[in-house]
């Protein structure tokens, strides 16, 4: 079936540098995308989301880019901090889907911030 | 504080035993979800409920059961038919509406087999 996937399972980044986490999706009908951050032993926390009518959205220190042509999503974290160390998940959704508006999650990327 | 509460945080199951994981939310959300997460893996949908007294199977429902008798509660039972139950279980909820896709998650329950 169609699914969301990630290019890199682990990303090691120096504190203060920018991080880029990539995500590929294959369902061309997906019109909503979301990024979550999950710290060890905790539930996922919302970071940022974007709809398919946009190609960029910015939050506090984070930016999500959407390239519908190549079905690619990325999360950029500016000035990465030790507290950013976590697993990051992307997820997609097809709105109005009869089956119930369910998010489909990718496999996750672990970000390790080096001091 | 508004949120989703999962209990217990850690749970141990003996072979052949059924165990129930609790999920309560005071966000007044209509829809609730259960996900399973294996180490180093993403989230897989077990069951979901869009409204009280109604629920649907997700992608990996075999060996699990749920009920939705109250809006704020969505307990998950891991039955003896689930042969590999060790995992981190996450409950989530969202508000009603086609543009309310964002899920809010609880802190999870780690289930292990003795």
- Specify the helix fraction band of chain B: under 10%
Structural class of chain B comes to mainly beta
Distance separating the two termini of chain A:
40 Å
Poorly predicted tracts of residues of chain B: none
User: Portion of residues in helices of chain A?
Assistant: under 10%
Structural class of chain A: mainly beta
Overall geometry of chain B comes to globular
What is the number of helices of chain B?
0
The arrangement of helices and strands of chain A along the chain is EEEEEEEEEEE
Q: What pair of chains forms the biggest interface? A: A-B, 24 and 28 residues
Largest sheet of chain B: 7 strands, mixed
Tell me the fraction of residues in β-strands of chain B, as a range: over 45%
Description:
The complex is a heterodimer of chains A (115) and B (114). With 115 residues, chain A is mostly beta strands. Chain A is built from no helices and 11 strands. In chain A, the strands form 2 sheets. In chain A, strands 2, 4, 5, 9, 10 and 11 form a 6-stranded mixed β-sheet that branches. A 5-stranded antiparallel β-sheet of chain A has the order 1-3-8-7-6, with no helix packed on it. In chain A, a hairpin with a 6-residue loop joins strand 4 (32-38) and strand 5 (45-51). Chain A starts with a strand and ends with a strand. Helices cover 0% and strands 49% of the residues of chain B. Chain B is mainly β. The mean pLDDT of chain B is 92. Chain B starts with a strand and ends with a strand. In chain B, the strands form 2 sheets. In chain B, strands 2, 4, 5, 6, 9, 10 and 11 form a 7-stranded mixed β-sheet that branches. In chain B, strands 1-3-8-7 form a 4-stranded antiparallel β-sheet, with no helix packed on it.
């Amino acid at each position: 079936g169609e699914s969301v996937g990630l290019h890199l399972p682990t990303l090691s980044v120096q504190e203060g540098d920018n991080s880029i986490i990539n995500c590929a999706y294959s369902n061309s009908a997906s019109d909503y995308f979301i990024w979550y951050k999950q710290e060890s032993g905790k539930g996922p926390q919302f970071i940022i989301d974007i709809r398919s009518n946009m190609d960029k959205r910015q939050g506090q220190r984070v930016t999500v880019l959407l390239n519908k042509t190549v079905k690619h999503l990325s999360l950029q974290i500016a000035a990465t901090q030790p507290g950013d160390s976590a697993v990051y998940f992307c997820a997609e959704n097809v709105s109005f889907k009869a089956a119930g508006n369910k998010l489909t999650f990718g496999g996750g990327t672990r970000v390790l911030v080096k001091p | 504080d508004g949120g989703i509460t999962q209990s217990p945080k850690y749970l141990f199951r003996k072979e052949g035993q059924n165990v129930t994981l609790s999920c309560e939310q005071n966000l007044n959300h209509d829809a609730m979800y259960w996900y399973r997460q294996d180490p180093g893996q993403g989230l897989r949908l077990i069951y979901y409920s869009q409204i009280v007294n109604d629920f649907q199977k997700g992608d990996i429902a075999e060996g699990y059961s749920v009920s939705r008798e109250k809006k704020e509660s969505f307990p998950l039972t891991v039955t003896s038919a689930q042969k590999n139950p060790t995992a981190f279980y996450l409950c989530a909820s969202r508000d009603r509406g086609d543009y309310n896709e964002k899920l809010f998650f609880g802190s999870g329950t780690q289930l292990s087999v003795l």
